[in-house]
Amino acid sequence: MSDTVLIANRGEISVRIARACRALGLRSVAVFSEADRGALFTKVADEAVCIGPAPARLSYLNFAAIVSAARVTGANWIHPGYGFLSENADFAELLTQVNIGFIGPKPDTMRTWGHKLRSREAAKEYGVPVLPGSEPLDDVAHALVCAKRIGYPLMLKATSGGGGRGLRVVRNDRELERAFVDTQKEMAIGFGASQLYLEKLLEEPKHIELQVLGDGNGNIWIFGDRECSLQRRHQKLIEEAPSPTLTDSQRAELLPSAISAMKATRYLGLGTLEFLRGADGKLFFVEMNTRLQVEHPVTELVFGIDLVQLQIKAVLGLPLGLPDQQVWRPRGHAIECRVNAEDPWRMFPSAGRVDSCSWPGGPGIRVDTGIEAGSIVPPDYDSMLAKVIAFGSSRDEAILRMRGALLETRLTGVRTNVDLHLALLDNAEVLRGTMTTQTLDRMMKSSQGSTAEVAKAHAAAQL
Amino acid sequence: MSDTVLIANRGEISVRIARACRALGLRSVAVFSEADRGALFTKVADEAVCIGPAPARLSYLNFAAIVSAARVTGANWIHPGYGFLSENADFAELLTQVNIGFIGPKPDTMRTWGHKLRSREAAKEYGVPVLPGSEPLDDVAHALVCAKRIGYPLMLKATSGGGGRGLRVVRNDRELERAFVDTQKEMAIGFGASQLYLEKLLEEPKHIELQVLGDGNGNIWIFGDRECSLQRRHQKLIEEAPSPTLTDSQRAELLPSAISAMKATRYLGLGTLEFLRGADGKLFFVEMNTRLQVEHPVTELVFGIDLVQLQIKAVLGLPLGLPDQQVWRPRGHAIECRVNAEDPWRMFPSAGRVDSCSWPGGPGIRVDTGIEAGSIVPPDYDSMLAKVIAFGSSRDEAILRMRGALLETRLTGVRTNVDLHLALLDNAEVLRGTMTTQTLDRMMKSSQGSTAEVAKAHAAAQL
Amino acid sequence: MSLDLNFLRELVQLMRDHQVAEIEHVDGAAQLRVSMAGGRVAAEPVPAVMSHAVATPLAKSSSDFIVVTSPLVGTFYRSPSPDASAFVELGSAVRKGQTVCIVEAMKLMNEVETESEGIVAEVLVENGSRVEYGQPLFHLRRS
Amino acid sequence: MSLDLNFLRELVQLMRDHQVAEIEHVDGAAQLRVSMAGGRVAAEPVPAVMSHAVATPLAKSSSDFIVVTSPLVGTFYRSPSPDASAFVELGSAVRKGQTVCIVEAMKLMNEVETESEGIVAEVLVENGSRVEYGQPLFHLRRS
């Protein structure tokens, strides 16, 4: 039987995975909700099936509908993309029971490395540096004892949080007491069983991550690092590879323990080890994403590889065709800007119809999108329209090309955040490469008054 | 004074050059004819000036209009692109007299290497293999004597011919006599002073070329080879890098003499040495293009460089930032398909309005185009709408990605040759890499009956 | 032009929304013809002149028809088991809440019930074939 | 011609907005037919060869004005030399073939002559500034 991959996702990443399937000679099946009827991703795949109404829990998060869609289309593999079911070990487990392959790590690996507290323990075991922190907290009293031991400032975190939820900075006992109650309440609503724990707070950290690929037999490749410090409400906005500040000796220090941890757990498929880098330059592991990342293209461009193809090959047991080196050297520099349907200054999402769109092209420019002229951006899902990715032989060239590409990006019908990206690429911290996860917030505050000015400058710069 | 580059061209290559200028921090000026008012390339450059009516001789070939446009916009450099004035040594000479820099080789170099007979002599001098041939022919009697010496079959060529004009195959004395008269007549109409000469005919040759960069001080870089055997009426349709059939030992044999010839003439800027490869595998120099080529992106993708930036830097005397190696190794494989506005089966051009267009994207795909939704394709110029370029770690992957990219390419309003490209990428000779300059003609003849079928298959495959 | 179901669905929706009476399109000689119902034909949305009349899955009823759609993606069965007879046949009168077919998903047999009574006027899907969420399965005539 | 849904959507919107009853469009013989619902019918076959309707620079005349445009790209001068007076002023009556300005290109002074007589109603470009091919320089009122 020939292999067929059902793509349990939507938008640009569904298109991306369908392209990888095509390049591997695999049949692809898109699934879509009623809100996505007629979307580009339903046309790029070899086949497309409607699996439910707009709300994600009834369609893209609906185990039964997705498995049934795989059954009726003869799909024997499911690629979960990112978000939705991509880190759901129960879904992966279910698939093994119904004889469908999950394109991701084994469920046990997901449960270890995908769990905030367990992955901390696993990392420590293999010598990967982690931030000082606590065990799971029984109650407020326990929390106060741990806080005393580690020392303020601290982060109070919930194991099942994410995207900024279940996360609070506490600087003294009083704040910790209040945060403990608030976080418990927050997590009780729709986040299921959650444990709270404390972690040392790093002020003005950089977000740096390592791209991992494993073949399940203990062979591990690390495709360098990425920096994703430009974030807003814990949502990444601009990512680049390699990190502009990590030194080669820091890289050399970081890699052996990361590789041995991945080797020992016989990691399968793609994964990302996320680190925070403090002002003193020290790196600490914070969590692992056991899936394909939104920002994978920047790594692809500097290594000349196709990570989605490699991921599929690894999980399907096909030869990877990679040289034996575990650590590759990147060539050049790549930057990605996430173009979202939103008013970035007032933080309003902007769903609607894309009346026309014209994407940039030419040397060093790659665009991954699920949008074409006439596409509907439904209010039900995330607001990312496209990833514009620029490659250059140096970071400066990549930034120059990105600026040009953004100026050439034209959409009508929905508001985009292209002007925010242009402003960021003019920011002194960004240009120096010294940005932290606080840079974007700082810029937004300082530019509150000059918002109109920036928008005007952009309008003038636009074609 | 800051440097400003006037781009004396149109369409995709004008966009391409404007992007390179932007990445180098140079101001760019587009010039356009009335037929191109509002075209994309007039919007991508920093400034645009109308230089004349639609006929190229009154606009894009009009020395005075272009120089005047440079004057009034403060441009101190002119980039000629390809075609139009790009190989016109007189134009280059004029520019030096009015203190404007020509982004190309020195006029003398253009006169030597850009001249069909003189470049043969120059190549021979440095040990570059050339096809057996004659000196300039005085008359028919002289031609017959030379033909006897070299032996049939032969090509009768005119020095000022090009694109298939002034070029005839002769297999005996009678054919030579007739061809001599016909070619003289043909060249008398609008081709100016022309000399005729004979060259040994290679049957079923492959077209292979070397990408040259020189800094004018005798430093030469060769960025590998390209194969452009898929041609029709001497118009290239698909190009790739590297050539799928050239062996490393052939490369090693070819390069030293090519480098020394370029070194000795202190070549400046970009150039392409074109070779024919016979069935026995031997390579012969045929001519040199002393300019940027349409197909330069395939070289850029496998070497990770920006040839237009390098060309500009070399001519402006900026540091190239290249390592000292003269010969670079490519990584992976790249293919380019020229998407033209034409009915490829009936060979009709298809000017008109592009009502909508949707270009492919994603990993390994690059699109260079001057077209957007609403663009007018004037009947006055060549019919190329876009270059779709695919990179892969192997030739197979590049072809697979190209096929997907072509399926994702959708234009309405004008007919394109996308279906011909899809048919070519299914052709056994193309897939084996054994295609010659005759392959396309052969395929067209054999598929004459099945044209409708191919078109139907494509329509079904289209999104 | 390949015949795309989604395209047709949207086309019909478009024609209904805007009361388009006719769209004619010939690809060979490249002809297009669009006629609006305008003020002349007022009362009923005029069905398009098309060989494959496809109802939109969203429009569960019109004045004449009740459309029974699939509540999930799966395999359509007209009878409870291969040997058994079909739940309903053409011309059957069905009560509100009556089981008219099964859509199997993950080995679970999901009985599809009508939301109102009517006469089975058309069976739109073949036994054993795959159905999407929202796909029309039956047309019932109001009784 | 391939059938584009967005195109159709816009077409239908257009027809609705303007109460168009019918649009017929044949590509081969280049014909276009539009019928209005309101009773006013433009029934004549109209050539569908879309003239590339370009704005101002090509429109050399209207009923009221004669537009003098630049025959080349260069620098616009109103007088033969810096010290000399202008060739024409507002209100000047000009003969057919009279020099009204100079456009300098490559140090050559190209005299621009009128193609018909009139009164200078407007000078559209400042002395010494750059002009494109086809750029309007003067408006003449018919005399």
Overall mean confidence score, pLDDT of chain C: 73
Assembly category: heterotetramer
Q: What's the tally of helices of chain C?
A: 1
Percentage of residues in strands of chain C: 35-45%
What are the secondary-structure elements of chain C, in order, as H or E? HEEEEEEEEEE
Task: Describe the protein's architecture and organization.
The complex is a heterotetramer, with two copies of chain A (463 residues) and two copies of chain C (143 residues). With 463 residues, chain A is α+β, with helices and mostly antiparallel strands. Chain A is built from 16 helices and 22 strands. Chain A has three domains: 4-103, Rossmann fold (3-Layer(aba) Sandwich), CATH 3.40.50; 132-200, ATP-grasp fold, A domain (Dna Ligase, domain 1, 2-Layer Sandwich), CATH 3.30.1490; 206-461, D-amino Acid Aminotransferase, Chain A, domain 1, CATH 3.30.470.20. Chain A has helices spanning 11-23, 40-44, 63-73, 89-97, 107-113, 116-125, 140-150, 173-188, 248-264, 296-303, 307-316, 395-408, 418-424, 428-432, 439-446, 451-461, and strands spanning 4-7, 27-33, 47-52, 77-79, 101-102, 154-162, 165-170, 196-200, 206-215, 220-232, 235-241, 268-277, 283-289, 333-340, 342-343, 348-349, 352-353, 356-358, 365-369, 376-377, 384-392, 410-412. In chain A, strand 12 (268-277) and strand 13 form a beta hairpin. Chain C is mainly beta. Chain C is globular. The chains are: A alpha+beta (463), C mainly beta (143). Chains in contact: A-B, A-C, A-D, B-D, C-D.
List the helices and strands and how they pair.
The complex is a heterotetramer, with two copies of chain A (463 residues) and two copies of chain C (143 residues).
Chain A: E1 4-7, H1 11-23, E2 27-33, H2 40-44, E3 47-52, H3 63-73, E4 77-79, H4 89-97, E5 101-102, H5 107-113, H6 116-125, H7 140-150, E6 154-162, E7 165-170, H8 173-188, E8 196-200, E9 206-215, E10 220-232, E11 235-241, H9 248-264, E12 268-277, E13 283-289, H10 296-303, H11 307-316, E14 333-340, E15 342-343, E16 348-349, E17 352-353, E18 356-358, E19 365-369, E20 376-377, E21 384-392, H12 395-408, E22 410-412, H13 418-424, H14 428-432, H15 439-446, H16 451-461
Parallel strand pairs in A: 1-2, 1-4, 2-3, 4-5
Antiparallel strand pairs in A: 6-7, 6-8, 9-10, 9-12, 10-11, 11-14, 12-13, 14-21, 15-16, 17-20, 18-22, 19-21
Helix pairs in contact in A: 4-5, 7-8, 13-16
Chain C: H1 5-17, E1 20-26, E2 31-36, E3 65-69, E4 74-77, E5 93-94, E6 99-105, E7 108-113, E8 118-123, E9 130-131, E10 136-141
